[in-house]
Design brief:
The complex is a heterotrimer. By secondary structure, chain B is an alpha+beta fold. Chain B contains 21 helices and 30 strands. In chain B, strands 3-7-1-16-13-14-15 form a seven-stranded mixed β-sheet, sandwiched between helices. In chain C, strands 2-1-5-3-4 form a five-stranded mixed β-sheet, sandwiched between helices. Classes of the chains: A alpha+beta, B alpha+beta, C alpha+beta.
Chain lengths: ~290, ~775, ~160
C-alpha cells in the first residue's frame, strides 16, 4: 500500500473538515473491510483516511418502536444483528447484515460502509431500500437527507460531495403487518459476492398488499429500486400469480451483464426466482408481524 | 519382498499426537513466510500485464532512484540454462524453460509472468518501485485454448518448438520437425479397439472440458535468500523438495550444487504446487547484487497468476459394453493445456484414465499443447482428475444403457491383480474390488435419498503413486529415545508417520522418537514430498537404519553377555540371548548401556525404493440440486480407498478427506475465469471459490487396508488419489438428481440451470 | 519514502504493548514484521481466508483488514496468547487429538476464531460451528476433523450437549 495519512476524527465537524481539505484524495474509514482492500490492490489511491470510529454519533445504534431505527454509519454489522430488539423488529435487514463476508468481516464492516462503498452487489442496500431507509448526511454546507435508493450514482460512487459524510441510516418503524426479506444467490454458502440479491418488503391488509418495495443487487451498475415491480403488487392479493407478475416486472427493471459471477441470462432468470422467494418470505413475515 | 501378511503392530495404525503439534497450535512453528533475518531486504516481482507480448526494453532507472530501493534484476541478468527435460512430480520441466518461467527474457508468455524483480527496505517501497519500472511491450495475439492452439493458423508461442512423439511417459520422444504449439503427442495402446467396439452392444461417445484450477495452498510462495561473500547461497523457504530445488537453482544460476543450501521451513500446503522454484532465483540474484539477505513473498493474486496451476483439458471419451455389462473397448483423446511451457500431466492422465477397469482394448491419444497461461505444475494425482472425469461419466451412461446399477457395473468390470493397464503393465496385488464392495455394503449405499431433486453418484479412480529416493539418520540416546533426522519436508504429518515406523521397529513409543527435518547440507538426498511417496520411501529408509542399529546393538548385548552377536536376537523391543532365556534387555535398557559397551550408536542410510503400490478408490456422493438456481448441496459423501497399511490412522483419513474436498471444489466451483485477452478475472480467494466449511458435509471414509506386499511395513501411497473421483461422482449424482449430464467443469449453478432449461425445452 | 511513524499503545495477549507503525501497515503486518509474532498467518491479505484472525476487543477480525494505527487502545489476542504456562488451551489440545491440522498454516486462525465462539456459545451445533468458521479456509483437511475438534473442545470445556 502507498504511504497514506491517517486521521482519527473525534467529531462530525472535524471529520468533515479533514475530508474537505483533501477533496477526492480523502475518504472516510469505518470498518475498512472494503477500502483497505481497494487501497492495497491499487484500485483506489488516497492521501488521507479519516477514521469515523471515534465519533460518538456515528457509533450509535438506537431503536424505538415508534420512531424506528437509527444506525450510526460506523456501527459494525454484528452490533445490528446482535441487538435483540433490532433483530426482532427488522428481520429483513438482519438477513443482509448477517451474510456479508464471514464473522470476521461482520466484526468490523458496517452497513454505512456497505452503502458508501456503493458496489452493485452491496447486500444491505436492497434491504435498506426495501425498508424505505434514509441516509443522513453531514457536510461543509450543512446536513441533508437522501433516500437510500437515490444514494448510489455509479459503481463506487455516491451522492456524497467533497467533505460530506454519511452520519447515520434511519429506518422507519415497521408498520403493522409489515414484512421484509433479503435473499441472494451465491455459488458457495458463505464468503461470496451476490450473483443476484433481492430485497423485498410489503404491508398486508389481510391477504391484500397495501405497500410493496422491491430492490435488486448485482443486476445493474448500481443497486436497483424496482418501483414497477413493487407497484405491480400494490392493491392486489398476495397470490402466486400476482407474485409471479411482480417477479417478471423485477426482471424487466434489471440490466444485468455477463461476468465471472454469472451470465446475463442466468442473472435475469435468478431475479425471477429470488424475487418470488423474497416476496413469499416477506408475506410470511408480514402475516406473522 | 515377499507378501506381507497383515501384521500386528503396536504403534503402526494408532493415532499419536504429532511431534510438531504443540508448535503448530501455538503459532510457534516457523513457516517459510515467517522467516526473518537481521538486515533483510524485501523483494517484489514486476509481472507482465499481457498474456503474450514481446519485451522490447526495460528501464528501471526511475525505480532505482526511489529512496529505499537497492537493486533491480531482469531476465537479462540470468544465464541461459541447459535445454534438458526433467521430471517434476508427474509433470515435467525443462531447465531452460524453467529459467524463462522464473523470469521472462524476450517474451512474456502469460499474464503474471515475471519480468523484473526489485529489492528495497520495505515491502511497501518495493511495491512502489515496481510501478516505476518502465517496460516497453509489443503486445501479441495470445493462444488461450488447447484445441485452438493445435490449429495450423494460430500464432506459435515458441516459434522454434516442434512436436515430439512419445511412446511412453517421460520418453524423450522423437522429434517430428513440425513447428507447432503441440509440444508432445503420446499414445497408449492395448489390444484392438476396432475389434473391441465391434463386440459392444452399446457405445457412448462424449466430449468434455475442464478449466484451470489451482492447488490453493494457504501459504503463498516465499523465499529468503542470502548470497554470501564466499559464494555460498542459502535459501530458507517452504518447498516440497529441498534437494530437487537445489538442483533447479544450480542449473538456473549456473552455480555449483555444493554451494547451495536449501533450508526447509514449515510449509503451508503444496499439493504439487511447491515443487518448482519461482522466487528463490530472483531472491538469490538480488541478494548477490545487494549483499543483503532478501525475502520475497507472493500476494494471493500472484499465487494464482504466477505459479503453476493444473491444466485445463479438452477431451473425448468413447466406451463400449456388451448387453450383459462387460466393457469391451475404450478410446480417449486428451488435449491438455500445458501453459506457457511444455510439460503438462497428460501422460499421467492417460495412464490413470480407465485403469480402475479391466478393459482389453484401449487407445488413448494425448496432446501436450502450449498456451498463453501459467506453466502447469503438479496438483494431487496430476492429470488424473481431468482424465477420469470423462471416463467415469461415460461409464455411468453405459451402466444406464445396460440397465445395471452403476456400482454393480463397476464391480463387474473392476481391474484385478494381473489385469493389464492401458500401457500394458500388469496390476500388482491391490484392493480395487474391495473398495467397490465395501461401498456396496455400506449404510450409505443402503440409505434412501429421502427427497425430490436428490441423486446419488459413484465414481472410481486410480493413481500410480511414486517411489523416489530417501535418506534418514538416527542417533540412539542414553534414555532410550531416538533422534530421527529426516530430509523430506513434512507437509501433513509425515514426521510422525516416519517416526512411528522407527518406533515400531525398536519397540518403543512414537513419543520416544524425536524427528526433525534437516537442510540439504545435513542429510542425504531425499526426493520430493510428492507422489504420495514420503511415508513409503522414508519407511524404507527407517527400515534400513533401524535394522542396522539393531545389528549394532546385538553386538553390544553380546559383549555384555559374553557371547557372539549371532547368539543374540531381537523381537518386540527386547534383545535376548538365544541360549540363555533369562538374558534379555529391552531396547531402552540397551540404550543406557551403549556408552559402557563401546560408545554411542548412530546410523544413516539412503534408499531408492521401487514398488510404490498403486492406489484405487471408489467414491459415493448424494446431492440435492435446486432446479431453479442450479445450486448443488452435498448431503452425504463416502470415500472408500485402499490405503495399504495405515501408519497414522487419522492422518491417513485426513488425506482422503482433504483430497475429496479439493475434488469437490474442482467439480463445482473452482476455475480460472479468463477474458478473451488472457486476463484472469478471479485471482482472489473471494472469486476463485474454494470450498468453505459451510459447503461440505462430514466426509465419511472406508479405509480398506490392503498392505503393499513390496513394502516392509505394507505402506501404499494414500495422499493423492482422493481428488480424482469427486468430479465424476458429482456429475453422475447431478444427473441422478435432475437428469442433466454436465460435461464442462466446473458444474457451476448457471450451467446447470441452462442444461435444465435446454432439457425442458424452455428458456424461462 | 518512509512516512512519520505513529506510536500505538495496545494490550496484546494481556500485556501492555507499544509499537511504531506507518498508517499503511496493517495490524497483521505489525504483528508479524514489527513485533515478530508470526503465529498470525497471512493467507490472502484481503479478508477472504481468515488465516490472520485475531481477537480485537472481544470480536474476531481479519488483522489484514485492520490498520496498525487503528489498534490504538485495543485489547488484542493472538494465537501466541491462547496457551498458558500451565498448558495448551482445550481447543489446541482438541485440534491435536483430532488431527485437525495437516500443514497447520490455517490452524492459528481457526483456533482464535473457535475460542471466540466457545466463549460466547458453549454448546454450538455442527451447523453453527460451520457457519462461524466459514470465514476460515483450510485446504488440507476438508474441515471434517476441525469441526470434530471444536465440538470436542466444547464438551471438554464443560458445555455438555
Amino acid at each position: 500500500m502507498r504511504p497514506i495519512e491517517y486521521v482519527a476524527a473525534k467529531t462530525v465537524q472535524e471529520a468533515v473538515k479533514s475530508l474537505a481539505e483533501k477533496g477526492d484524495a480523502a475518504r472516510p474509514l469505518a470498518g475498512g473491510t472494503d477500502i483497505i482492500v481497494q487501497l492495497r490492490g491499487g484500485r483506489r489511491q488516497l492521501d488521507r483516511l479519516v477514521d469515523m470510529k471515534a465519533i460518538p454519533e456515528l457509533n450509535e445504534l438506537t431503536y424505538n418502536a415508534s420512531s424506528g431505527l437509527r444506525i450510526g454509519a460506523a456501527v459494525p454489522c454484528y452490533r445490528v444483528y446482535g441487538d435483540a430488539a433490532v433483530a426482532s423488529a427488522y428481520p429483513g435487514l438482519i438477513d443482509a447484515a448477517s451474510l456479508i463476508g464471514g464473522i470476521q468481516i461482520q466484526g468490523r464492516g458496517s452497513i454505512g460502509g456497505n452503502l458508501c462503498n456503493a458496489a452493485p452487489s452491496g447486500d444491505t442496500i436492497p434491504a435498506l431500500i426495501a425498508h424505505s431507509a434514509v441516509a443522513e448526511i453531514a457536510g461543509p454546507g450543512g446536513n441533508r437527507e437522501v433516500p437510500v435508493e437515490d444514494f448510489c450514482t455509479a459503481p463506487g460512487r455516491t451522492v456524497l460531495q467533497s467533505g460530506e459524510i454519511l452520519v447515520a441510516i434511519r429506518v422507519p418503524a415497521p408498520a403493522a403487518h409489515f414484512g421484509a426479506c433479503y435473499i441472494r444467490f451465491i455459488p458457495r454458502n458463505e464468503m461470496d459476492i451476490a450473483v443476484v440479491g433481492v430485497g423485498a418488503s410489503m404491508v398486508l391488509d389481510g391477504n391484500k398488499v397495501t405497500a410493496c418495495r422491491i430492490a435488486l443487487a448485482s443486476v445493474a451498475p448500481i443497486p436497483v429500486y424496482a418501483t414497477a415491480a413493487g407497484a405491480a403488487l400494490v392493491g392486489k392479493e398476495a397470490t402466486e400469480e400476482n407474485i409471479n407478475a411482480a417477479s417478471e416486472a423485477a426482471q424487466a427493471a434489471a440490466t444485468p451483464i455477463s461476468d465471472m459471477r454469472g451470465t446475463a441470462e442466468y442473472r435475469t432468470h435468478l431475479i425471477g426466482v429470488l424475487t418470488r422467494r423474497a416476496l413469499q418470505s416477506a408475506i410470511q413475515r408480514a402475516k406473522e408481524a | 519382498m515377499t507378501t506381507v501378511d497383515k501384521k500386528k503392530y503396536k504403534v503402526i495404525g494408532t493415532s499419536p499426537i504429532r511431534h510438531d503439534g504443540a508448535d503448530k497450535v501455538t503459532g510457534r512453528a516457523v513457516y517459510g513466510i515467517d522467516y526473518h533475518m537481521p538486515g533483510m531486504l524485501w523483494g517484489k516481482i514486476l509481472r507482465s500485464p499481457h498474456a503474450h507480448a514481446k519485451i522490447k526494453s526495460i528501464d528501471a532507472s526511475k525505480a532505482l532512484a526511489l529512496p529505499g530501493v537497492h537493486a533491480v534484476v531482469t531476465g537479462k541478468d540470468m544465464a541461459v540454462a541447459a535445454d534438458i527435460e526433467v521430471e517434476a512430480g508427474e509433470t515435467s520441466l525443462n531447465y531452460m524453460h524453467l529459467s524463462d518461467n522464473v523470469m521472462a527474457r524476450d517474451k512474456a508468455l502469460y499474464k503474471g509472468h515475471a519480468v523484473a524483480a526489485v529489492a528495497a527496505d520495505t515491502q511497501h517501497i518495493a511495491e512502489e518501485a515496481l510501478a516505476l519500472i518502465d517496460v516497453d511491450y509489443e503486445v501479441l495475439t495470445p493462444v488461450l485454448n488447447g484445441r485452438e492452439g493445435m490449429k495450423a493458423d494460430v500464432p506459435l508461442i515458441h516459434p522454434d518448438q516442434t512436436t515430439k512423439v512419445m511412446a511412453f511417459r517421460f520418453d524423450p520422444g522423437t522429434d517430428t520437425g513440425e513447428k507447432s504449439n503441440v509440444a508432445g503427442r503420446s499414445q497408449l495402446k492395448l489390444g484392438d479397439i476396432d475389434a473391441g467396439f465391434k463386440e459392444a452392444d452399446f457405445i457412448v461417445e462424449r466430449e468434455f472440458t475442464t478449466s484451470w484450477v489451482h492447488q490453493g495452498y494457504i501459504e503463498a510462495q516465499n523465499a529468503t535468500a542470502h548470497w554470501n561473500n564466499d559464494d555460498n547461497i542459502t535459501v530458507w523457504n517452504s518447498s516440497q523438495g529441498t534437494f530437487n530445488q537445489r538442483q533447479l537453482m544450480a542449473e538456473i544460476l549456473k552455480h555449483p550444487v555444493s554451494q547451495i543450501k536449501m533450508v526447509p521451513l514449515e510449509i503451508g500446503g503444496g499439493f504439487g504446487g511447491k515443487i518448482p522454484v519461482y522466487l528463490e532465483v530472483p531472491a538469490a540474484m538480488l541478494s548477490k547484487k545487494t549483499g543483503h539477505p532478501v525475502k520475497m513473498t507472493m500476494t494471493r493474486t500472484e499465487v494464482f497468476e504466477g505459479t503453476g496451476p493444473a491444466s485445463a483439458a479438452q477431451m473425448k471419451a468413447k466406451v463400449g459394453a456388451t448387453k450383459d455389462g462387460r466393457i469391451t473397448a475404450a478410446y480417449a483423446e486428451l488435449v491438455f493445456e500445458a501453459g506457457a511451457f511444455p510439460g503438462s500431466a497428460v501422460g499421467a492422465g492417460a495412464q490413470g484414465m480407465f485403469t480402475a477397469y479391466n478393459i482389453e482394448n484401449i487407445l488413448i491419444d494425448g496432446y501436450d499443447v502450449v498456451v498463453n497461461k501459467p506453466k502447469s505444475a503438479a496438483y494431487r494425482s496430476p492429470g488424473t482428475p481431468q482424465a477420469c472425469f470423462p471416463a467415469e461419466a461415460v461409464i455411468d451412461e453405459l451402466a444406464e444403457l445396460v440397465g445395471m446399477d452403476p456400482l454393480d457395473f463397476r464391480i463387474k468390470n473392476a481391474a484385478k491383480e494381473g489385469d493389464r493397464r492401458a500401457d500394458g503393465v500388469q496390476h500388482p496385488e491391490m484392493g480395487n474390488l474391495e473398495c467397490m464392495e465395501a461401498l456396496k455394503a455400506s449404510d450409505h449405499y443402503k440409505s434412501d435419498l429421502g427427497g425430490p431433486n436428490r441423486g446419488r453418484g459413484v465414481a472410481s479412480g486410480y493413481w500410480g503413486n511414486a517411489g523416489m529416493p530417501a535418506s534418514c539418520s538416527i542417533a540412539i540416546n542414553a534414555d532410550g529415545t531416538v533422534s530421527l533426522a529426516e530430509g523430506s519436508p513434512d507437509i501433513g504429518g509425515s514426521r510422525t508417520s516416519i517416526a512411528m515406523m522407527c518406533a515400531e521397529a525398536f519397540g518403543i513409543a512414537a513419543e520416544d522418537v524425536h524427528p526433525s527435518i534437516k537442510d540439504t547440507d545435513s542429510i542425504g538426498y531425499n526426493g520430493l514430498t510428492a507422489g504420495s511417496s514420503t511415508t513409503l520411501r522414508n519407511g524404507w529408509a527407517v527400515f534400513e537404519v533401524t535394522n542396522q542399529a539393531i545389528e549394532l546393538i546385538k553386538a553390544r548385548a553380546a559383549r555384555l553377555w559374553e557371547t557372539e552377536p549371532e547368539n543374540v536376537d531381537f523381537a518386540d523391543g527386547v534383545f535376548f540371548s538365544k541360549a540363555e532365556k533369562e538374558l534379555k534387555l529391552t531396547f531402552k535398557e540397551m540404550a543406557g548401556k551403549l556408552m559402557e559397551t563401546g560408545g554411542p550408536i548412530s546410523v544413516a542410510a539412503s534408499v531408492a525404493p521401487r514398488g510404490a503400490g498403486p492406489s484405487f478408490t471408489t467414491h459415493m456422493v448424494d446431492v440435492e440440486v435446486d432446479p431453479e438456481t442450479g445450486k448443488v448441496d452435498i448431503l452425504r459423501y463416502t470415500a472408500a480407498q485402499d490405503v495399504g497399511t495405515m501408519i497414522h490412522h487419522d492422518y491417513v483419513e485426513g488425506q482422503v478427506q482433504g483430497g475429496t474436498a479439493q475434488g469437490i471444489g474442482w467439480a463445482l466451483n473452482e476455475e480460472y475465469f479468463y477474458d478473451d485477452k488472457g486476463q484472469m478475472l478471479n485471482s482472489s480467494y473471494l472469486d476463485y471459490r474454494v470450498p468453505t466449511m459451510l459447503d461440505l458435509p462430514m466426509l465419511d471414509t472406508i479405509l480398506v487396508e490392503h498392505p503393499n506386499p513390496d513394502h516392509p511395513f505394507g505402506v501404499r501411497g494414500v495422499a493423492e488419489i482422493s481428488v480424482v473421483p469427486p468430479l465424476g461422482a458429482l456429475a453422475n449424482a447431478i444427473y441422478a438428481a435432475v437428469g442433466v449430464r454436465m460435461r464442462d467443469l466446473p458444474m457451476a449453478p448457471h450451467k446447470i440451470v441452462k442444461a435444465l432449461q435446454e432439457k425442458n425445452g424452455k428458456t424461462k | 519514502m518512509a512516512a512519520v511513524k505513529t506510536h500505538v499503545r495496545t494490550t496484546l495477549n494481556g500485556e501492555a504493548t507499544e509499537y511504531l507503525c506507518e498508517p499503511n501497515q496493517s495490524l497483521l503486518e505489525v504483528l508479524r514484521d514489527v513485533l515478530f509474532l508470526t503465529g498470525t498467518k497471512e493467507g490472502c491479505n484481503d479478508g477472504n481466508c481468515g488465516a490472520c484472525t485475531v481477537n480485537m476487543d472481544g470480536r474476531i477480525v481479519d488483522s489484514c483488514l485492520v490498520l496498525g494505527v487503528e489498534a490504538e487502545g485495543s485489547d488484542i489476542l493472538t494465537i501466541e496468547g491462547v496457551a498458558t504456562p500451565e498448558g495448551l488451551h482445550p481447543i489446541q489440545q482438541a485440534f491435536l487429538e483430532n488431527a485437525a491440522l495437516q500443514c497447520g498454516i490455517c490452524t492459528p486462525g481457526f483456533i482464535v476464531a473457535s475460542k471466540a465462539l466457545l466463549e460466547k456459545e458453549p454448546n454450538p451445533s455442527e451447523a453453527r460451528v460451520r457457519h462461524w468458521l466459514a470465514g476460515n479456509l483450510c485446504r488440507c483437511t476438508g474441515y471434517d476433523k476441525i469441526v470434530k475438534a471444536v465440538v470436542d473442545a466444547a464438551n471438554t470445556m464443560g458445555g455438555k450437549k
